[in-house]
C-alpha cells in the first residue's frame, strides 16, 4: 500500500474531481439551459426569417435582418437617444449617489432605517415605477404640474410626456430617481473598505477633509467605482422598462432607445429582426466594455 | 464523508426531477389560462369554474392568471412547448397566429345546444379565422360616444364634423372638447375616421381596402378625414393627449377635463363610479356620406390541439359559452353579450347600453373586419401609432402618412393574394 502512494493519490484526485464535477453539474445544466441556450437560440433567430405570423416556415436569410434594421432611420434615432439616455442618467445618478453615500456614512440616529428607505426604489419593478411617473408627469392631471402651478413657477401646464424634449427629460428624471440608490449602496460598501487608520494618519499629517477625500478615499475606491460605472452603463442601456411604460418610445420615437426599439420589433412579431437588434446591442456593449476596461486599467497603471 | 454527500446530491436531483411529474389520481385535471387578467374578472372566472366542477364531478380545473401586460407572451411560450395546457383565452389578434401554428383544436358545433343560442355575430366571429370554429367568443367590445349633457350640447354629434364643432365650443381654459388618443392605439381612431369618410366604397370584410381593391388610404376622402383628425387634436383636445392611451382618455372624461370620449363599454362602469352625473352615450360619429365603420373587438375561449383531455376541454369551453354563464360574464365585464337570450335582459337595453342597440339597428353603422390575418398587421399597429404621433406633432404631413400607409397595404395585398 505504502509503495503505491502516488497512484493512490492520483486516483483520489480523479475521484475527487469527478465528484466536484458532479456537484457542479446541476448548476452548469441550469445556466446552460436558462442562459446560454436562449442566448444562442436568439442569436440563431437573428439570421432567420422568424415572424410570429407564420412559424411553420423559418428559413435562414443570412444578414437580411441586420440589413433591414440598419436601413431604418428609427434605429439610428434610437441609437442617438440611447447615448443621451445613458450619459445624462449616469452622470446624475453617479454624483447624487456619491453624495448620498457620503451622507449616509456618518453616524446618526435611525441610520439603518433611513438607509432601508433610501434603498427601497431599487427593489421596485421598473414597469411599476414607470406607471407611477407616467401619472405624475401627466400634463393634465399630474401632480408635478399641480405643484409647479401652485408654487407659481409656471403659468401653464406642461405636457411633459407630450413634447419631445420634455419627454426625454421626464424619463431621465425618473431613471435618475431610480438609479441613485444603486450607486449609494455600492459606493457606501466601497467606502467602508477604506481602512480607518489611513484617515488617522492623514489627519496627523494635517490633511484637510477635502485632501483626505482626494488622496485617501478616492484612490482606494477607484477600482470599485470603475466597475460600478461599467455595470451601470450596461444596465441603463438594457433598461427599457421605464421608458416603455412611461412613453412607449413616443412622442413619435423621441424617447426610443435601442432596447425599446427591440421591444417594438418583438411586439410587431418579427423575432428575427429583434434578434438582430439584440446581437447589435451585444456587440456594442462588448466593444465598449473592452475599450472601457482597457482605459481604466491604463489609468490605474499610471 | 464523501458518500453521504453524494447520496444527498442524488436525492436532491431525484426530488427535483420528481416535482415535474405531479400526482396522478383518477381525476381529470384541466389547465386553463386567461389573458385579459384583472382581479375582479379572475374572481368571476373562478366562480364559473367552481360551477363547472360542481356540475362535472371528476374534472378539476386549474386557472393560470398571468399579469395582463405579459399574458399573451406567456401563453405563446406555453403553446410553443405544446404541453400542459387545455383551455385558453384567445383574442382577436392572437387567433390567427395560434391557429396558423396548429395550436388550437377545432371546436364541434353540432350536438351542442348552446351553438344555436349564440347571436349571429358570435357565430360569425367564432369561425372568422381559418373558416373553422377555433374559439367561442365570450363577448364583444365596440366603441360608443360618451358625452357630457351639461356642457351646452343639446344633442350628440352625429358626424365627425359636428364632433369637431361641438368640441371647439366646449374648449375653454382648462376644459377641452374631446379625449383624444395620441399614444398607444391612437392610429385606430384615425383609421375609424378615414373609413367613415370613404363611405360605402369601403369593403367591410377587408376594411383597409375599398371594393375596387385599392387601399382606403389612397383616396382624397382619406386626406380630408386625416386633416380633420389633426384639427380635432389641435383645436378641441388637451395638448397633453399626444401621449394619452386608454387610462388617460378615460381619466380625462371622468375627471371633467374633456366633454367627449369614444371608448368601449367597459368604460360605462368607470363613468358611473366617477363624479360625472350628466352624461349619455350615442353611436360613433359618421362621415359625410352617412356611414360609420368600426371593427368589433372580441376574445373567447378555445381548446388546445395537444390537450390530453380534449373532450373535457371542449366541455369547459361550451359550459362557459352557454347562456347563463356567458351573460354573467358579459355583465361582470361590461361586454356586449353573445347569447340571444340577453336581449331580454334589462341591463343591456337601458341607459348607457341603449346606444349599442341603436347602432345595431342602424344599417349604416357597419361592423368591419380588420386585416388581422395579413402578415404585416402586428408591424402596422406599432408603426402606425408612431406615425400618428409624428403627424400631430408636425413631424410628418397628412400626405406623407397616407402615402406610407397606402404603400404598406398595397404591398400586403400582394403578399396575401
Could you explain how this protein is built, in words?
The complex is a heterodimer of chains A (302) and B (417). By secondary structure, chain A is mainly alpha-helical. Chain A has a single domain, classed as MetI-like fold (Orthogonal Bundle), CATH 1.10.3720. Helices cover 74% and strands 0% of the residues of chain A. In chain A, helix 3 (73-105) packs antiparallel against helix 9 (209-237). The radius of gyration of chain A is 25 Å and the shape is globular. The termini of chain A are far apart. Chain B is an alpha/beta fold and 417 residues long. Chain B contains 16 helices and eleven strands. At the A-B interface, helix 1 of A face helix 1, helix 4, helix 10 and helix 15 of B. Chain B: It comes from Nonomuraea longispora.
Walk me through the topology.
The complex is a heterodimer of chains A (302) and B (417).
Chain A lengths: L4 H41 L18 H7 L2 H33 L5 H9 L6 H11 L6 H8 L13 H29 L3 H9 L4 H29 L3 H6 L11 H10 L3 H31 L1
Helix pairs in contact in A: 1-12, 2-12, 3-7, 3-9, 3-11, 5-7, 7-9, 9-12, 11-12
Chain B lengths: L1 H20 L6 E6 L5 H17 L3 E6 L3 H14 L5 E5 H9 L13 H4 L2 H7 L9 E6 L2 E5 L11 H11 L5 E3 L7 H13 L21 H17 L9 H9 L3 E6 L2 H8 L5 E4 L9 E4 L1 E7 L6 H12 L1 H10 L21 H8 L3 E4 L8 H16 L5 H19 L1
Parallel strand pairs in B: 1-2, 1-3, 6-7, 9-11
Antiparallel strand pairs in B: 3-10, 4-10, 5-7, 5-8
InterPro entries (chain B): Bact_solute-bd_prot1, SBP
Protein name (chain B): Sugar ABC transporter substrate-binding protein
Pfam family, one (chain B): SBP_bac_1
